[in-house]
Amino acid sequence: MIKALASRLVRNVMARIGAATALPFRAVFPNGMEITGGRGEPEVTIHIKSTRAALRTVVFGHIGVLESYFDGEIDIEGDLRKIMAIGFSSGFDDSAGLLVKIRNRWHGLRFNNRPNATPKENARFHYGLGAEFYSKMLDDPYLMYTCAYYQHPEQSILEAQIAKMEHVARKVRLEPGERVIDMGCGFGGFMFYAAEERGVQVTGVNTTTEQANWVKAKIAAKGLEDQLTMHEADVREGFGVYDKVVSIGVLEHAGRHQLREVIRAHANALKPGGLGLIHFIGHVGDRETDFFIRKYIFPGGWIPSLSKALDAMEAEGLEILDVENLRRHYALTLDAWTEKFDANWETIRAMDPDRFDERFLRIWRTYLIGCAEMFRSKASQTNLFQVLFSKGNVDTASYPMTFEHLYEQPSAGEREGLAPRMEEPRRSSEESSAPRAAG
């Protein structure tokens, strides 16, 4: 009786999805019954294999579907991208009810990023997977794990990441000899780019032990100790005052209650009249961060609203000079990461079969593909913002009146200077744990 009831309830859920989307799909239920939704011949099939999976779908909405898929109680036949697109086009991605909201709040309380609480553990949960793993997914000698900047959609991921770093460097007007702090520097990609291409001195700050150690080894291997400094620490600890502040992908990890203090740390690190840039995933409006992302991918993470971030920046004495939305660029970035992840999955699994198992595969493909479709969705209110700011108000002499300087073509000498670092040789799997040539 419970099985029949569960099948009937989940059929109603799938029927509502089918009526709300034009994308065709088939759903097969635990009792063997089937329905189709959307318009046209089904291109994907959702196999709901157990009564438990059916009940989880009814009770927890899209979170129930995802958790049942991770547990192997739901299977997907066909392209996972299409399933994700169906979820976003039908509004099912926003189907979590009261119980999921309670779980989300409880998760936020447990994994709050207050200083001296869990920020390091939260960061290591995701970024502590290590450079060997990320090198197989990012396929980028800089190991840039943030939204790239596609000057045209056909660019390679490496070209787009270099374009992103150059775009940031031009926005903050990097000049030789300046002192720069890279907040939450990841594997140090921007640090190395800025030092080698712009002749600046960069201090990197990162709380993830694995990434910090990787950057330190790179600095030593490249003999850049006179230009680059690495601190394994929380960005809120304070490391002096700098000419420029760059923050690429940090604000999402501040947490619901720490947004203002993290932005204050950025403001405190910038000299009066200095320029800075914060690059972050942000919501339009004050919205909840999806429970799947917080529980399975980024514990402690919280996607802030653009308006609250801007309010905090202004409250800390920062003048907003420009806000750019790179949402469409992130969809292309995630597509590239997914392609490399899929192509290298067997190599990844061989690194640690117990850790990189079928469940990990399902979770990470859901994360990569789901985020790509979220950024691609016409209904999305999640974006990637670059906010350019100054410490105090600028005048006509301290910053150009237009952004023409962002799009000037590099000279022949500058192009030649980039070429050697763009064409680094591949490493074998035996070499992959050694320090690579760029961060």
Describe the structure.
The protein has 439 residues and is of the alpha/beta class. It has 17 helices and eleven strands. The protein has a seven-stranded mixed β-sheet with strand order 7-6-5-8-9-11-10, sandwiched between helices. Helix 2 (51-60) packs antiparallel against helix 3 (62-70) and helix 11 (259-268) crosses helix 13. The radius of gyration is 23 Å and the shape is elongated. The termini are far apart. The relative contact order is 0.12. Mean pLDDT is 89; it is low at 415-439.
Describe the biggest sheet? 7 strands, mixed
| Strand arrangement, major sheet | 7-6-5-8-9-11-10
**Percent of residues in beta strands:** 15-25%
Spans of 5+ residues with little confidence (pLDDT < 50)?
415-439
